[in-house]
Amino acid sequence: MKLPSAKARYSGLSLIKNALSYHENWQRAWRNPKPKTDYDVVIVGGGGHGLATAYYLAKEHGITNVAVVEKGYLGGGNTARNTTIIRSNYLWDEAAHLYELAMKLWEGLSQELNFNVMFSQRGVLNLGHNLQDMRDIERRVNANRLNGIDGEVLTPSQIKDIVPLLNTSPDCRYPVLGASWQPRGGTARHDAVAWGYARGADALGVDLIQQTEVTGIRRQNGTVIGVETTQGFIGARKVACVTAGNSGVMAAMAGLRLPLESRPLQALVSEPLKPCLDTVVMSNAVHGYISQSDKGDLVIGAGTDAYNGYGQRGSFHVIEHTLQAICELFPAFSRVRMNRQWGGIVDTCPDACPVISKTSVDGLYFNCGWGTGGFKATPGSGFVFADTVANDRPHPLAAPFSLDRFSSGALIDEHGAAGVAH
Amino acid sequence: MLEIYCPYCRETREEEEFSYSGEAHIARPPEPEAQSDEQWGDYLFFRKNPRGLHHEMWYHQTGCRRYFNVTRDTVSYQILESYPMGENPTVTTVANQTGDAR
User: What is the SS3 assignment for A84?
Assistant: First the structure.
């Protein structure tokens, strides 16, 4: 049976066919439906993680009576504001397994979604600048390899072979002493990830409801019965919140608290340049990370601001600090002009790991706390969260990330492997 | 960049002189041993993280090296008052903001 929302497949042939009608007859990627009065699951937040959750709920668990309710437009929050880096080289088993699940899903995602997410496994370098950095890197690479995750420790001359523009001179202020190298890491097109999951979810019958803000979570006897929105009440047996920086605001609607602090995280891009950097270079010690998009612009990630904020903008001195690091690493970039700069609100967690959890309210679930590194986890996050919501128990890979770790003390300290200090 | 008034130095200086120290007015439980795991976890890890008025501690790192409190709007980032440790804020709701706030 063909669903009303069935999608024509994208292919080279469809490109030629549509060229004949001047690309004016492409099918819309998704419907723009009015909300129904009642759903099995309402997902709050139409970013990458929320849309992935909707997609896997429909595909893996056959739950298609689902709505994604989004305040703005799909993928317009942190999904559109990150530096698109993908890697899975986390230190602890729990985190490594979760990010590696995501990595494996990334590797087949374009085919799975029939949408080119431009996943490019161009490799990720994490530089070390002092003895302790190198000890940490060797420990982390060994831990990764024990978990079946690719990783190597490189010497400065090996790094120079991969990134000729990098300043590996021993006499700079913070000389590069080595790096960890994950060849399977890389980047993906952030918008395409959101759009691909949106199109896939829509094809399976999920309603994507944009320009609709959730203003309350209605409960009865400790159980969720729906959400109040700017388009009126929408009934739901289960509500899954995937709202990143605003997760604390959502939790407060249900009388809950989360161990999160929301902070601005900035990034910026340069004018487009000819290809000069074909991998991702990150440095925790001097604090900068950089890659070059297929369009040619340098994509540079800065740090979080020190203070809590919801303003989607950050301080200038944070960018200045990052660009000092970038110019030190890549003296050739010192004259490059920056085009755009923006901030996203990241929900930082005390142990730099996410919260994927049931709550004390029946039928209410949270997927949050991804802090500064959620994009890389998008497919895995959606996969385990959909399973958690569908079966009302944590997916085995999500179990260590439950809220109860903040009373049991079983924190998963990934401050070392998280790209941005927070 | 924020411009922060230090109530001890009695001067407004740039943010880079200061470091942020999180939510203010969190009292350490007098008897930690008497706390349940939930209560202790709550004290350690759970913060208000409001969208709006926030009472927070700052440390004048390259100045007088003393802690003080600031009331700041976390959406507009506007600083509404600075006050020494041990004192209570005068701005506690959006309604009683003074001056050109918002």
Answer: coil
**Closest chain B residue to A246 measured between Cα atoms?**
B51
What lies within 8 Å, CB to CB, of A417 at 6+ separation is: A89, A90, A91, A95, A140
For residue range A28-37, list pLDDT tens digits in order: 999 999 999 9
- CB nearest to B74's CB, from A259, A306, A309: A309
When CB atoms are compared, the residue of B41, B45, B49 closest to A308 is B49
Q: Which residue has the tokens 């669903």?
A: A3
Sorted by where each begins, the domain ranges of chain B are 3-26+44-98
Nearest C-alpha in B relative to A404: B38
Do residues A378 and A53 lie in contact, with contact meaning Cβ atoms separated by under 8 Å?
A: no
For residue A307, the Cα-to-chain-centroid distance in whole angstroms is: 22
CB contact under 8 A, B75 and A307: no
Pairwise CB contact (< 8 Å): B51 & A249: yes
User: Of A306, A311, A315, which is closest to B19 when you measure between CB atoms?
Assistant: A306
Burial class (CB in 10 A: 0-12, 13-18, 19+), A13: exposed
Torsion on CA atoms A7, A12, A14, A19, rounded to nearest 10 = 140
pLDDT tens digit string along B39-92?
Answer: 999 999 999 999 999 999 999 999 999 999 999 999 999 999 999 999 999 998
Nearest CA-CA distance, residue B33 and chain A, Å: 14
Cα gap A40→A226, rounded to integer Å:
10
Tokens of A310: 């919801």
pTM score, two decimals? 0.94
CA distance A414 to A358: 22
260-279 of A, contacting B, C-beta below 8 A: 260-262
Chain CA centroid to CA A421, Å = 17
* Contact status of A341 with chain B (Cβ, < 8 Å): no
Contact present, A351 and A413 (Cβ < 8 Å):
yes
Looking at beta carbons, which residues of chain B come within 8 Å of A407? 37-38, 40-42
- List the beta strands (DSSP E) in A288-420: 288-292, 297-304, 338-348, 355-358, 364-368
Secondary-structure class of domain B3-26+44-98 per CATH: alpha beta
- Do residues A247 and A310 make contact, with C-beta atoms less than 8 angstroms apart? no
Cα(A44)–Cα(A174) distance, rounded to whole angstroms?
44
What kind and span of H or E run contains A62? none
Q: What is the pLDDT of residue A2?
A: 47
